[in-house]
């Protein structure tokens, strides 16, 4: 029988996942049957996970990466849910709220529903960045967490993280940065987003996005252990006494793949990928603008542009995996697998469709 094959990445322009680095793929396969959720049994993968956190904390400019707390999650959703849960557990009030920009990922809606916290959504400015004044107006003494996005899902925008962190702490709340996608791009920009740039308490950063690690490998980081302590439950049948993760059994393949990718690519390989992706985004934005489309100027390697519905549909029919923002714009994520020649083929198809 013929083995089923996954789709090729040739025409995938909508995804924040990408082809894993070959070293990461190999490492993941070696660790397929390991469970970092039981570190007293699976010691090798448990120590790899410590290395993963140290490497992620280095990317996120933690002042002392070996002291950072965190774990490899199933993805950005779990990391965001756990950040909300930790902040809720650490806050004194019974009915807490979380302030999230409207550009925040929908995982915060899941978190709010599951955890019984109020979600206060605040507007963004004309450039799709969270308005600090709106956050200041939304926080109160029941605010457990303020969320800022560093590399937004739809437009790749970075919120004013230092200002948001100040507002959060003045209100007695914690500060969480969602850099699920942006975390492997922003170290090579002058964006302010990291533990080194601002008083950030927790941060989401996913190796299985721009980090070129196999799925599933997300990351939750915390400045110090208190954030994870607030998540710990007793684990009577395991040799370790408590567990702070959301899921029990977890993917050792994800942990090993993430470490292998970061060991090989940090920093030069990631820098090259970010530069290539940035050039590609600029090229595509210019090509679309030349054809008269309204383009949202890319800041990180993500391009949004307004296309007629019929052209969008025709591109999908031609096999291009493209998606739309909530405002209806075409959205192209220039991931490492997206080459200049695939973008040239995409624009050539668009020209054919327009004729
Ligand atoms: C900014 C941001 N946060 C969180 C997520 C959720 O990540 P995951 O799909 O790995 O759960 C995404 C997904 O694209 C994202 O862009």
UniProtKB/TrEMBL annotation:
The keyword Lyase applies. GO terms for molecular function: aspartate 1-decarboxylase activity; pyridoxal phosphate binding. Its cofactor is pyridoxal 5'-phosphate. It holds the Pfam family Pyridoxal_deC. Keywords: Decarboxylase, Lyase, Pyridoxal phosphate. The keyword Lyase applies. It comes from the Archaea. Pathway: Cofactor biosynthesis; coenzyme A biosynthesis. Its EC number is 4.1.1.11. Belongs to the group II decarboxylase family. Sphingosine-1-phosphate lyase subfamily. Belongs to the group II decarboxylase family. MfnA subfamily. HAMAP family: MfnA_decarbox. Catalyzes the decarboxylation of L-aspartate to produce beta-alanine. This is Probable L-aspartate decarboxylase. The gene is mfnA.
């Amino acid at each position: 029988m013929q083995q089923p094959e996954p789709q090729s990445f040739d025409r995938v322009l909508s995804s924040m996942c990408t082809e894993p680095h070959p070293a990461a793929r190999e490492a993941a396969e070696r660790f397929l049957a390991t469970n970092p959720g039981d570190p007293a049994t699976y010691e090798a993968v448990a120590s790899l996970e410590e290395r993963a956190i140290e490497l992620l904390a280095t990317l996120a400019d933690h002042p002392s990466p070996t002291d950072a707390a965190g774990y490899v999650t199933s993805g950005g959703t779990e990391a965001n849910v756990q950040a909300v849960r930790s902040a809720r557990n650490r806050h004194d009030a019974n009915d807490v709220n979380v302030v999230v920009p409207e550009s925040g990922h929908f995982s915060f809606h899941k978190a709010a529903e599951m955890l019984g916290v109020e979600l206060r959504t605040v507007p963004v400015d004309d450039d799709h960045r969270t308005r600090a004044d709106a956050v200041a107006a939304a926080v109160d003494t029941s605010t457990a967490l303020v969320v800022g996005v560093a590399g937004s899902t739809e437009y790749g925008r970075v919120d004013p993280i230092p200002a948001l962190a100040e507002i959060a702490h003045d209100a007695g709340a914690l500060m969480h940065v969602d850099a699920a996608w942006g975390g492997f791009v922003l170290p090579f920009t002058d964006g302010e987003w990291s533990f080194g740039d601002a008083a950030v308490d927790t941060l989401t950063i996913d190796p299985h996005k721009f980090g070129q690690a196999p799925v599933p490998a997300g990351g939750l980081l915390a400045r110090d252990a208190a954030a994870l302590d607030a998540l710990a439950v007793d684990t009577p049948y395991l040799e370790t006494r408590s567990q702070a993760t959301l899921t029990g059994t977890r993917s050792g393949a994800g942990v090993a793949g993430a470490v292998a990718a970061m060991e090989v690519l940090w920093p030069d390989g990631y820098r090259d990928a970010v530069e290539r992706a940035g050039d590609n985004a600029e090229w595509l934005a210019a090509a679309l603008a030349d054809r008269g489309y309204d383009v949202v100027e890319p800041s990180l390697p993500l391009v949004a542009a307004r296309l007629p519905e019929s052209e969008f549909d025709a591109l999908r029919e031609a096999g291009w995996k493209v998606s739309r923002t909530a405002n209806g714009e075409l959205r192209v994520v220039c991931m490492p697998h997206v080459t200049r020649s695939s973008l040239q083929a995409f624009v050539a198809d668009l020209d054919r469709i327009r004729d």
